Fold this protein.
Amino acid sequence: MVAAFVGIGLAMAGAVFLAMQALFIRIGTDEGGVVNALLVVLASNILFVVVPAAIYYYPTYQVTAFSLFVFVAAGITGTVLARSLYYLSIERIGASRTEPIKSSQPLHATIIAIFVLSETVTFEHLIGIVLITTGIILISFEITSGEREISESSSITVLLLPLTSAFFFGIEPTFVKLGFQEGTPVYVGLAIKVATASIGFLGYLWFVDRLPTPRSVLRTSGRWYIAAGLVNTGFLYAYYMALERTAVSIVVPIVQTSPLLVAFIAYLMLSHRERVTMKTMAAAVVVVVGAIIITLYSSI
């Protein structure tokens, strides 16, 4: 019972960390860029996730060829692709709109499970899908009618950024679950994912000759990116430690409440940076409720 309450507390902390990350990235990208933000966050993950795992589990990391493959795949989809699009979306349409749409992750995960794992869709799943779709439509209308810096012709394209990010975030848990089935420890798998993402992203920047110097990365908005990196690392630890102590059906719905925190804090503190209306907050509630329903009934 004590472990369950600790897990719930960790999940709540994870939701807070996610909300803080979105807001720090939103503030930082006013002057800096998405690439710099992702580099700083990855550096924090390496320092506080990869290094400790490499030391603690040395010399036996309990990694098989298959678990190595799936955790590498998780790093590419869940970090390089998903997080890059996620940060870019925050820069383009704001944190209060990106977070609710990103919470459609359980929807994508369910669809993938239907086709890949032959899982069935329950009535509750259908309700969750309808709620998520409704919330996304409401937010898209807000983007089209309310954002002066986003033209009507490009609003649909911009909306695809958080949706695609959510899709890649939805793929990642499948790879992670397969890796855990091989007996690889949670933090070793997480370290492999982070290391893969870092190598892949740095390799891409080097290939296109856009690799910045450490000084230039922190020149603009450095303090906000460092803050985002620290809270992102805190989220990773809180989320995985919560899963160790409490059922997934409890942890994930709590974490999915982060968009509500983002919308509320943005309404109070970031009104001068992005327009947060009551319609946006209501749509966020609809998406989150749909995500919670899908997640709750995914384990049944």
Summary: The mean pLDDT is 77. Residues 2-298 form one domain.
